[in-house]
Amino acid sequence: MRWKNAALLALAVLAVGCSSNSKKELPPAELPEITEEVSLEKGWSRSIGEGQGETYNLLVPAVDGDVIYAADVEGVVMAINRFDGDVIWKQDLELPVSGAVGVGSGLVMLGTLKGEVVALDASTGEEKWRSRVNGEVLAPPASNGDVVVVQTQNDTLFAFDASTGNQRWMFENTPAVLTLRGTGGPVVTNRLAVAGLSSGKVIALDVQRGIPVWEQRVAVPQGRSELDRVVDIDGGLLLSADTLYVATYQGRVAALDLESGRVLWQREASSYAGVAQGFGNVYVSLANGSVEGIDERSASALWTNDSLARRQLSAPEVFSSYVAVGDYEGYVHLLSQVDGHFVGRTKVDGDGLRARPLVVGEWMYAYGNGGKLVALTIR
Questions:
Q1: Which helix (H) or strand (E) holds 167?
Q2: How far, in Å, CA of 102 to CA of 236, rounded?
Q3: CA 266/CA 213 separation, integer angstroms
Q4: Which residues pair with 342 in a beta bridge?
Q5: Which residue of 224, 309, 336, 340 could cross-link 29, Cys pair, CB 3.0 to 4.6 Å?
Q6: 284-343 pLDDT, tens per residue?
C-alpha cells in the first residue's frame, strides 16, 4: 500500500482540474475586477493552532447552538462563542487530527491519522472516550445521539456507542485501486448511516445493525489508466429534507431519495469539493475551478462562472442570497444565486482556504489553511 499512499498526495494536487495527459499545466486564473455589491464585514477572528497543516486536510469547524468548535492538525481543539469570538475552552490532544469536527448530543468528535476516534465533552472539553479503527480518519465522525459513525480512508464504516465508545458494528467495502486523498463524512439519521465511497457508490446501512439497506452507483469508472478511472466521492454528502445530494470526481452530481437510494436526477460533473443547495437550485464547485448553478427541476445548468479556473476552490455554501466559495489564496468569493456573477470578495487567510465555509443564520465562518477562523456577516 506504500505506493498508493504516495499517490494519494499526488492526486490531491492533480485534483485542481488539469488532465492526466496535459502537456503543460496552466496557472490559476488571475482574479477579475469586480463591482462590489455587498460587503463582507469581519465580526471577529481567532487563531486555531497550526490550522490545516501542510498535508491536504479539510478540518471543517462545526456549530452547535451558540458555540463553534474547531481543531487544528496537531490536536488543538477550541470551543468559541460564535457571536463574539470568546474562547470557552481549549484542549490540546497532541494527536495528528485529520477528521474534524463532528458535534452533537453533547459530544465533540474527531478522527486521527493513527486511526483513533476521540469524543470530548462539548461543555468542558474533557475526554469522554477514545476508540480505534483500521485506517486514517479524514472526515468528521457523525452521530444521531445513540451511535457515532466513522468512515476511514479505506471505505470501512464503524459505529460506536455514543456514551461509551464501545464498537457496535463494522462494515467493510472494497476501495478503489487509486483514490484521491480525502473522504466524505457519513450522514447519520435515526434509521440510516449513509456514506459515499471511493468506488463512486453511495451506500446506506441500518444504523443499529450495520446491514445494507440500499446501494446506488453515482459514477462509473472510465478510461484506460487508473488515474482516469478515479471517481471518488470526497466532497461529502448533503442531506436536505429527504433528498441526498452527492458529487463525484470525474463522474456526476446527483440527487438521491434518502429512503430508497433512487436517483431523482443526475448530471455529468467532476468535483472533489462538494455541493450546496438552496432556492430550488444546487451549486457545485467543479474540479476545474468553475462554479455551476443547477436547476433541480430540469437538471440543467442555470449558469456557470469559470472566472476562478484552477484556483482550487472549496465546496460552495449558500449565504443569504449568495453562494460563497474559498480559494487557494485565501479569498472568499460571493456569487449571485440568480446568474453567478460576483457580488463581493474578501481575503481571510494568506495560506489559502480549502475548507467549506460554514453558514449559520446571518453569520459565515471561514477557517483558513493557516489556522485563522473568521466570522463574517453581510453589511
A1: strand 167-171
A2: 13
A3: 21
A4: 335
A5: 309
A6: 999 999 999 999 989 999 999 999 999 999 999 999 999 999 999 999 999 999 999 999
